[in-house]
Amino acid sequence: MAGRGRFITLEGGEGVGKSTLAAALEARLAARGLAVVRTREPGGTPGAEAIRSLILNPPAKVTGWEPIAETLLFYAARTDHLDKLIRPALASGAWVICDRFSDSTRAYQAAAGHVPSEHIETIDRICVGDTTPDITLILDLPLSAARDRMTARANDKDAIESRVLSYHEAVHKAFLDIARANPKRCVVLDASVTPDALASSAIAAIDARLGGDR
Ligand SMILES: Nc1ncnc2c1ncn2[C@@H]1O[C@H](COP(=O)(O)OP(=O)(O)OP(=O)(O)O)[C@@H](O)[C@H]1O
Ligand SMILES: [Mg+2]
After folding, report:
1. Which of 31, 73, 114, 192 has its CA 20 to 30 A from that of 160?
2. Mean pLDDT score across all residues of the chain
3. Residue 205 contacts residue 187 (beta carbons within 8 Å)
4. Which of 9, 19, 175, when mutated, tests ligand 1's pocket best, judged by the most ligand atoms within 8 Å of its CB?
5. Atom 5 in ligand 1: which residue has the minimum CA distance?
6. Domains of the chain: which residue ranges?
7. From the CB of 154, is ligand 1 less than 6 Å away?
8. Which ligand has its closest atom nearest to the C-alpha of 160?
9. Does the pTM of the predicted model rise above 0.85?
10. Residue 8 in 3-state DSSP?
């Protein structure tokens, strides 16, 4: 990792507080004098943001995207994001905070959408290669609590948010399975606490895993 920044990804279902935590982490790490790049998926570059619109608002609204088509759109966006933003930022020594990354594809498109995992891992190796996260923070919150937060936020549901409850239950379970399968990379955080308490536990996890670099 020497000479390179650090790659931090935030994962979890909708409304668990990923974007709120991303902003808080950016502020706390920047206050240490680190160069921080905060970004999100799908998106983060002009090309990937254009693909984001296609994914979340499919032109054929009723049929939407088939799971494999959706997966390939995510990886087209991810490839652009890695090439044009994430890899250059890491090479410059910045700490990259990314709101969702490959684990979201594993949870949504593989576990909930039934795209075979081996297909996704093959595509992931091609597109992501060794630019894997140094640490992944998985925000854990019961689905009902996440729904309440989203209701409070009151925006229109996109194509993925609109999917049935069982889909989102599968996503929630998948993130915990991913954490169990990747204990060196992943840390599960209790996301039911206040934004400030969550940011503190996230910083503690980052320091424990990536410590000694400050
Ligand atoms: N720790 C928290 N406690 C209570 N409310 C929170 C907390 N974190 C975020 N919120 C609120 O919950 C809502 C969802 O948070 P946020 O947008 O950060 O979630 P998200 O995981 O990014 O959601 P999405 O997947 O839809 O992008 C927002 O209204 C936010 O203000
Ligand atoms: Mg968000």
Report:
1. 192
2. 95
3. yes
4. 19
5. 149
6. 6-210
7. no
8. 1
9. yes
10. strand
Q: What is the DSSP letter of 41?
A: S
Angle at 155 between CA 152 and CA 105, to 5 degrees: 100
Between helix 143-153 and helix 165-181 the angle, nearest 10°, is 120
Nearest CA owner, ligand 1 atom 3:
194
- Note the helical H segments in the chain: 18-30, 46-56, 67-81, 87-91, 102-105, 117-127, 143-153, 165-181, 195-210
What would the pLDDT profile of 1-54 be if each residue is shown by its tens digit? 446 899 999 999 999 999 999 999 999 999 999 999 999 999 999 999 999 999
Instruction: Fill in the amino acid letter for 77.
Output: A
Residue 13: which residues within 8 A CB-CB, separation 6 or more? 141, 143, 146, 168, 171, 172, 175
Per CATH, domain 6-210 is 3.90.1150.10:
no
